[in-house]
């Protein structure tokens, strides 16, 4: 299990030739993964927010389109501060990156393209994840317009 307690971006690569395209990320260790799912959105500027986990680690890899993943390090799971710093990470289809978000964070995912598909890997079973699921109103934190 990863002991890292801060988010990290893993840079991948894309190889193209006459046969097509190959996306890869040889620096990414997914040995802790127990499940995955894909989030799809067909509405630009739609926001899926705010969901967090105390212990669950997640990896986000964009398959199609573009999005911003907003991260908040939660200070109090029962009554988090409203002035927590928001970190925003851009993911684009043309750049093969994977964002690692450890337990302790809440995320808000903003679709910035007409269609978006985001693959999410988790180190927890669905049952364990549901027992560690914290949701906050999408307006609980304000995302600055420049983010």
Summed up:
The chain is mainly beta and 147 residues long. 3% of the residues lie in helices and 48% in strands. The chain has a single domain (8-135), classed as Sandwich (Jelly Rolls).
- The stretches of 5 or more residues where confidence is low (pLDDT under 50) are none
Mean pLDDT: 93
Order of strands, widest sheet: 1-9-6-11-4
The largest β sheet comes out as: 5 strands, antiparallel
Structure report:
The chain has one domain (8-135): Jelly Rolls, CATH 2.60.120.10. By secondary structure, the protein is mainly beta. The strands form 3 sheets. A 5-stranded antiparallel sheet has the order 1-9-6-11-4, with no helix packed on it. Strands 8-7-10-5-12 form a 5-stranded antiparallel sheet, with no helix packed on it. It is 3% helix and 48% strand. The protein contains 1 helix and 12 strands.
């Amino acid at each position: 299990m990863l002991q890292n307690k801060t988010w990290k971006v893993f840079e991948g690569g894309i190889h193209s030739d006459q046969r097509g395209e190959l996306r890869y990320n040889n620096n990414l260790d997914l040995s802790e993964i127990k499940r995955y799912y894909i989030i799809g959105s067909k509405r630009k500027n739609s926001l899926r927010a705010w969901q967090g986990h105390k212990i669950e680690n997640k990896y986000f890899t964009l398959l199609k389109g573009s999005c911003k993943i907003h991260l908040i390090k939660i200070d109090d799971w029962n009554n988090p501060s409203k002035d927590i710093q928001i970190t925003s990470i851009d993911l684009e289809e043309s750049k093969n990156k994977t964002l690692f978000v450890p337990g302790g964070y809440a995320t808000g995912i903003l679709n910035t393209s007409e269609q978006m598909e985001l693959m999410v890997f988790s180190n927890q079973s669905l049952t364990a994840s549901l027992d560690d699921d914290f949701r906050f109103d999408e307006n609980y934190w304000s995302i600055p317009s420049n983010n």
